[in-house]
Design a protein that fits this description.
Elements (H helix, E strand, L loop, with lengths): L14 H7 L5 H13 L4 H15 L53
Length: about 110
Amino acid sequence: MTAQLPIPDYDEMPLSTLGHRIRSLTEDELNTLLEHERAHAARVPVIEQLTGRLNELREGVEPTPGPEEEPSDVPSHSRSGSEVTPEPPRGKGRPTAHGTRSTTGKGIEHD
């Protein structure tokens, strides 16, 4: 059985995201990931990123606060706003879309 990794879904994580996620890890947690990486995929860029962060910690850099359950690289909101429909917003008496003309050759706003 594999030991629990300090980052959920670590093996599927892109390198760009990993850089953000490892900032909150301790030296022991980074060593766990490094051992796992070397034993499994052995991706050179990932090993370099993990060892680089380990070196930073050994030089006195502190892990950034924040639980892994709420990583900083995941937006805390969902996209929302007005619903987009395939129908144009024009109706009688409303101007045509920018750059278009009505059947009279003039924009509706020039009636």
